Amino acid sequence: MYQIIFTVLAIILGSVGFYFLSKYVLIKQSPMVLNILKVVFVGLIVLIAYMNYNSIESKISLTENVKTRKKAVQQRLEQIRDAQVQYKKVRGVYAANFESLIDFLENDSIPVIFMDGEVPDSLIGREAEALALGIITRDTTQTPVKELLFIGNFNSILDSLIFIPFSGGKQFNIDAGMIHKNKMDIPVFMASAKYTLIYLGLQTDNEGYDMTDSLMIGSMEEATTNGNWND
User: Fold this and answer.
1) What CA–CA distance (Å, rounded) separates 29 from 98?
2) Nearest to 161 by CA among 48, 76, 57
3) Where are the beta strands (DSSP E) in 164-209?
4) What pLDDT was estimated at residue 204?
5) What does the pLDDT read at residue 112?
6) Following DSSP, what letter does each residue of 8-48 receive, concatenated?
7) How far apart are CA 14 and CA 119, in angstroms?
8) Overall average pLDDT of the 198-226 stretch
9) Where are the domains of the chain?
């Protein structure tokens, strides 16, 4: 909408400007010269209007592409986070590389506890007693990760998990380790992608985007599984 308004204004202002020039400034020129100037002036108006429209259209397209790419990378990072959370539940630490993480997703299992029976009202909050009395039973079953994570899209997500969307096949950076905090060793992980790879091929120069930064999830300095974005 805005580009149409700016284009119409450029045409109107240019036409008005040419009218006053021809009426008060170029009044002594021959009709032929005036016609030539008119053609040149109209051409300039059209060119300016086109450049204005194209510039605004390019800006809108860039904004939409940036939003689409950022969202896709955020979603992929969240999938890596979900896989890492399950990995830690089973192995006590996070995966420090994609080889270990993918092998876990493909071949490992997660213990799932099933409970049979119902705790009576008189024992609510005292499940251990209900279990000891045989009122309820619990059974732990090893269930393949692929049956619990990314249900319905496991194979497609697994095939693309390590790759940064729109980057031409570049992989996310991934790391894991331990930090010592409150006299405890706490597992941490981080996965990240540089904006230079996320926005690869887009004309981001002088558009206010910090290409030296990265999108990331987790941290190697604090125990968090959050991403560094707000939207």
Assistant:
1) 77
2) 76
3) 173-181, 184-194
4) 81
5) 79
6) HHHHHHHHHHHHHIIIIISTTS-HHHHHHHHHHHHHHHHHH
7) 82
8) 89
9) 2-59
